[in-house]
Amino acid sequence: MTQVSATEIEAVVQAALMRAGAGTFASAEVARAVAAAEAVGNRICGLYYLESYCKQLETGRVKGDVTPVVQAKRPAVIQVDAGFGFAQPAFAYGLAPALDAARQYGVATLAVGHAHTCTSLGYFTEQIAQAGMIGFGFTNASPIVAPPGGKSRVIGTNPIAFSVPDGAGGIAMHMDQSTTTVALGKITMAKAAGETIPLGWALDSEGQPTTDPDAALKGSLVSMGGYKGWGFGLIAELLAAGMAGGVLSQDVKPLKAPEGPPHDLGQYYMLIDPAGSDVFGQRLADLAEAVGQDEGGRMPGQGRVLEDPIEVDPAAWAQALGLAGRTEAAL
User: Fold this and answer.
1) b/e for 13-52, b at 16 or more Cβ within 10 A?
2) What pLDDT, in 10s, does the model give residues 174-193?
3) What are phi and psi of 245, to 5 degrees?
């Protein structure tokens, strides 16, 4: 592995994106998200995506120079039109008014529509929690999941994320997961590495369990917990497409394909002010104590360490440098 600072990752990623046609603000926001993903070992949402971002900027599948448009359709209903650009700058435009609305009314929603994939959904709910609000997030993706008992793809991996503030600027609880047994990226990475996948992750095109990642990619992924995960995936679909104005998963082309129509995805967030309850802080503390009474027990997200310097995949880093038109000596 190669060790690189978070600052270096941001600088190289931003340079690569700008070289491919992205504007200064959009590229900075995406670069920040890429570095954050790498810092927690989430390589699927980190440098792994950079080449795709650059190719899609060059073909126009994602717009790198648009200005998101923010509207308050109701006092606590914030809507952002990403203009077929990146999700990260669109969220940044909408976050401040959504936080203001949540502080005033106790609850607010933030919908980002007509956006590129947001990759790590929890990256956004973390920002909500760091500002003192409970944050829930939902999004959809290209179709890869069939209903339990079926084989026709209907929805995407459709992640759900939530983050809970600790009252001191940090995060007490954090969860970010796909509604499938495993994220799609783990299967694509297994295929690239020539590895098999465990039974229970996916089905082949005939609806039969498979350990072959290629057969899985031609088939469908399995919802976590069967009907339970399927239900969560459906509600994420309805909120992302129905409330944020994105398209249904079945109309989204493969996310990393260099050419094709814009992703046109939606991301939907709910912000809840815990100050609306006199006992929230105490209940959170009591719950955390109960969870931690046994050795190894912890609240979701506790114990995560942000690396800096960050160990990155040498091939991914070399590719990033090439996309940025740089060499190690230039840093």
Assistant:
1) bbbbbbbbbbbebbbbbbbbbbbbbbbbebbbbbbbbbbb
2) 999 999 999 888 898 899 89
3) 90, 10
* 123 DSSP β-pair partners: none
Mean pLDDT of the chain: 95
Question: Tokens 């270096």 correspond to what residue?
Answer: 8
Say if residues 136 and 125 touch (Cβ distance below 8 Å).
yes
List, as one string, the DSSP characters of 30-91: HHHHHHHHHHTT-GGGTGGGHHHHHHHHHHTSSBSS---EEEEEETTEEEEEEEEE-HHHHH
* CA-based nearest residue to 262, from 89, 27, 34, 61: 61
pLDDT tens sequence across 76-90: 999 999 999 999 999
Rounded CA gap, 161 and 177, in Å? Answer: 6
Residues 6+ apart with CB under 8 A from 215: 202, 204, 205
- Split at pLDDT 50, 70, 90, the class of 287 is very high
Residue 282 host element (H or E): helix 280-291
Identify the three-state secondary structure at position 245. Answer: coil
Across the range 224-243, mean pLDDT stands at 97
List, in order, residues 6 or more apart from 19 with CB less than 8 Å away: 54, 323, 324, 325
How would residue 328 be classed by pLDDT, with cut points 50, 70 and 90? low
How far apart are alpha carbons 109 and 314 in whole angstroms? Answer: 40
Q: Which residue has the tokens 């814009």?
A: 262
Spatial contact of 270 and 135, defined as CB atoms under 8 Å apart: yes
What spatial distance separates the first Cα and last Cα of the chain, rounded to whole Å?
18
Contact 140, 134 (CB under 8 A): no
Within a 10 A sphere around the Cβ of 11, how many other Cβ atoms? 17
Dist. CA 268–CA 218, nearest whole Å: 29
Six-digit token pair at 310? 């960050």
* H or E stretch at 272: strand 265-272
